[in-house]
Structure prediction request, 237 residues.
Amino acid sequence: MTLDFLVPLGFGPTGWGWPLLKACSITLSAAICGFLLGSILGVAGAGLKLSRVCACRMVGSCYTTIFRGIPEILIVYLFYFGGSVAFTKAMNLGGLPGFWSLPAFAIGVMAVGIVSGAYQTEAFRSAYLRLDRGQIEAGVSCGMHWMLLLRRIIAPQTLRFALPALGNIWQSAIKETALLSVIGLTEVIRQAGLAAGATRQPLLFYGAAAIIYFVVGRVTGVFLARYEHRLAKPWSR
Prediction:
């Protein structure tokens, strides 16, 4: 059985191995940066939805409702084209004529992060509501100030309860990076399309892209499962 059909995936002068690896690194970078941005927005959004102030709760609810209800591809388009138009107008007002486009990577991270943050908001909010209020009251009665209470009781247990949902959101963030090919970011899907067009072997390269996504998702999923088990150890004794 010959493996000549795999030659285009090699790392030689005619192979597409290095471009695919570079595209994989861009995909991972966009997913990680977007997920981290989403974590910041998720914590802030959960704080808003848990606030006693009605206006804050309304802002948090609007955020999650809007960005969980709009298709991700539309959000990417809105940020890319709408952001470029707004940036161009701002630059023109500043005396710099012409059209100014925003970097595709930055737009991609923002789009993935805002969508991820909407889902992480609900994950953190639900996890916080699962906390044992007796532990918080005990910490307050022992004289813990709010930062110490947050560091020792609230944050560790909230993360523990939220981690299964965060794992699913991370997997979604990885797959959402495939949508960034429509704005010109050379991630895995776009690079696979370029290679498929050049070699006329779409099945080979799109199959390779599927394997890349599967391996990345599987490896990170195992890591998150181990971390979840580690966080649960203090409460399983």
